[in-house]
Design a protein that fits this description.
Uridine Diphospho-n-acetylenolpyruvylglucosamine Reductase, domain 3, Uridine Diphospho-n-acetylenolpyruvylglucosamine Reductase, domain 2, 21% strand, 18 strands, oxidoreductase, 5-stranded antiparallel β-sheet, (R)-2-hydroxyglutarate dehydrogenase activity, alpha+beta, EC 1.1.99.39, FAD binding, Alpha-Beta Plaits, FAD-oxidored/transferase_4
């Protein structure tokens, strides 16, 4: 069957006007935030119901057409990139919040619900959805589940998988499965729900998700602290964790801060210039809790771990302090950064970061390195900025060499080559640094069960 005939048949499976083939749509929906692969999809399909998703998957099996899921396309691993004539299945029109259960504190969402939409819904109910990150205003719940999104609150609340009570999924065969049925306790064999969380659409598509909510935090307050060196950040973390439950603990380098301040959107937190900064957040639910935070800050200064600091005194100041961290990714995008999203256990972070920093500085002294990340849960973001005069392809080729050295260090420290952005295509060839051959073989065997014809987001995670 020719492509026009294929597309004509696809159009009968969804509502009129919900299959696009124009060049602008193919380009927009065929990519994510990565810039490594040129989008080249066959068409973009917009289902509005579970039945339409099933029909698309069965059609794809019949004609051996590959499918790529598309949410907010904010991913950083090329998991949502369609570069080889696939049909993109975009969930923009499956964007309803279907049900809310006040007693169970759960909300049933379609996959196209935007993260901030769920956060705002929870807030309206006096509750809280804690999975949060800079792209919350455009990322979608289906994509969050597909990549097991983390973000800035993991130290307290964990990853997306901690908040998924149940799923409805359409497998690669077109079957509809209802997984876990929103139960808290369920000891009836394999938890297939967890297989689909973080699977990047390679097993099937999430078509409905029941998400858990939590109580709303009280009087969130942030501290930004300047440290004399990286080794001081871990003692600061331990000092505060001994006294209170933190909702976030982030770090960024002086280079990251300088890029953000140069935008002119937010003021410097204080006058003292420091090589590294920590941003921590806690609930100042009582005056005593706030006083304890200040006392711990003073203790850290006495120990020489902190050179200067500031604590938010208002909601506006809280937001401004968070902008110092959250604006980093958007700000450095101007330099076409090559990103690595790696993790180790928390105690290994300082030595791990020093080794990677030394390797990159030794071999590529002209590359500017920007560090930031969720250091409280062992997750570091290494960003290598492209020199203005260097061609993009040459830059990415040099960074591929850096990757090997970086991932050898990750393997040495028994870490992960992708802490929260997924594997997709950008990390696919490096999976063996974090997973054994036996593990990868098991994952391939699992995929074959759910997707025997290999149509679900092929070429992602592994070949």
């Amino acid at each position: 069957m020719t492509n026009p005939a294929l597309i004509d048949e696809l159009k009968t499976l969804v509502e009129p006007g919900k299959v696009l083939t124009d060049a602008d749509s193919l380009n927009a929906y065929g990519k994510d935030w990565t810039k490594h692969f040129a989008p080249a999809p066959l068409a973009i399909a917009f289902p509005k119901s579970i039945e339409q998703v099933q029909a698309i998957v069965r059609w794809a099996n019949e004609h051996k057409v590959a499918l790529v899921p598309s949410g907010g396309r904010t991913g950083l691993s090329a998991a949502a990139v369609a570069a080889h004539g696939e049909v993109v299945v975009a969930f923009d029109y499956m964007n309803r919040i279907l049900r809310f259960d006040e007693i169970d504190r759960t909300v049933v969402c379609e996959p196209g619900v935007v993260t901030r939409q769920l956060q705002d819904f929870a807030a309206d109910k006096g509750l809280y959805y804690p999975v949060d990150f800079a792209s919350a205003g455009s990322s979608q719940i289906g994509g969050n589940i597909g990549t097991n999104a983390g973000g800035i609150k993991v130290i307290r609340y964990g990853m997306t998988r901690n908040w998924v009570a149940g799923l409805k999924v359409v497998t690669g065969k077109g079957d509809l499965l209802e997984l876990n049925k929103d139960l808290i306790k369920n000891a009836t064999g394999y938890d297939l729900r967890q297989l689909f969380i973080g699977a990047e659409g390679t097993l099937g598509f999430v078509v409905e998700a029941t998400m858990r909510l939590d109580r709303a935090p009280t009087n969130l307050t942030a501290l930004v602290l300047g440290t004399p060196d990286l080794d001081s950040i871990m003692p600061v973390l331990h000092a505060f964790q001994d006294k209170m439950d933190l909702t976030a603990f982030e770090f960024f380098s002086d280079k990251a801060l300088a890029k953000v301040l140069a935008r002119g959107d937010v003021p410097a937190p204080f006058e003292t210039e420091c090589p590294f900064y920590a941003l921590l957040e806690f609930e100042a639910s009582t005056e005593e809790r706030a006083e304890q935070a200040l006392a711990t800050f003073e203790h850290c200064v006495e120990q020489g771990w902190v050179l200067d600091g500031v604590m938010s005194q208002s909601e506006q100041q809280l937001q401004n302090l968070w902008k110092l961290r959250e604006y980093i990714s958007e700000t450095i995008s101007h330099w076409t950064p090559y990103k690595n999203d790696v993790s180790v256990t928390i105690g290994k972070v300082p030595a791990f970061l020093k080794e990677i920093d030394a390797i990159v500085a030794e071999h590529y002294p002209d590359f500017e390195i920007v560090w930031f990340g969720h250091i409280g849960d062992g997750n570091l973001h290494l960003n290598i900025l492209k020199p203005d005069a260097m061609d993009k392809d040459e830059f990415f080729a040099k960074c591929a060499t850096v990757n090997k050295w970086v991932f050898e260090i990750v393997q040495k420290y028994a870490g992960s080559i992708s802490a929260e952005h997924g594997v997709g295509m950008t990390k696919r060839d490096y999976l063996g640094y974090s997973r054994s051959e036996a593990e990868i073989a098991c994952m391939k065997a699992i995929k074959a069960v759910f997707d025997p014809n290999g149509i679900m987001n092929p070429g992602k995670i592994f070949v």
